[in-house]
TrEMBL record:
Acyltransferase is among the record's keywords: yes
A Pfam match: Acetyltransf_1
CDD domains, sorted: NAT_SF
Organism: Petropleomorpha daqingensis
Protein name: GNAT superfamily N-acetyltransferase
Keywords: Acyltransferase, Transferase
Phylogenetic classification of the source organism: Bacteria, Bacillati, Actinomycetota, Actinomycetes, Geodermatophilales
Domain N-acetyltransferase: 16-191
Amino acid sequence: MDAATPFPRFTGTAEVSVRPARPDDAPAVARVQVVTWRTAYRDVLPVAVLDEWDEDAATEAWRTAVTAPPTPGHGVLVAVERDEIVGFAAYGPAELGAGEVPDPAGPTTEIATLLVEPRWGRRGHGSRLLAAVADLAMATGTARLQVWLPETDGVSARFYESAGWAPQGWARTLETGGAPLREVRWHTMLTDHRSDEAEEAR
């Protein structure tokens, strides 16, 4: 995101906020990722992924995601509380699945990951990140948001459901080097959010 791009209206307060990630945020983003995975996803992700974590490689991958995104539609946001990065979200244009046709309503943005470190949970950081991604997506004409969630991840499913998302009927199985990981796709139409905002403005 360049300096001329307006940031979403929903950024928080002086103590809690959401902003675009910077290159020097990469170590903190990698730390939030591994701490959250090891704490909240140990029963979901393969043990090898968690125990053989390469901190340097993860940090460099996130730095590259921030400094050299694959397309202008890709981005990384961070949630901040009192100057500490406590969560992040990565997003980009969605790829069509096998046999899937483009949505006639318009483009789709996919949330690749949205994580909040567990000790900072229940403070609205996840909701602020989700709202910021939605605002950025709507500003570029995106019609729909989607995310893939592990089928057994009830916590994330309840979070997205509370935000008005729903399962879309698509599923996939990923090879992880251990037990296959089955994921289901959730989505929300941003056109519905535009309608809600129009009603509130009346």
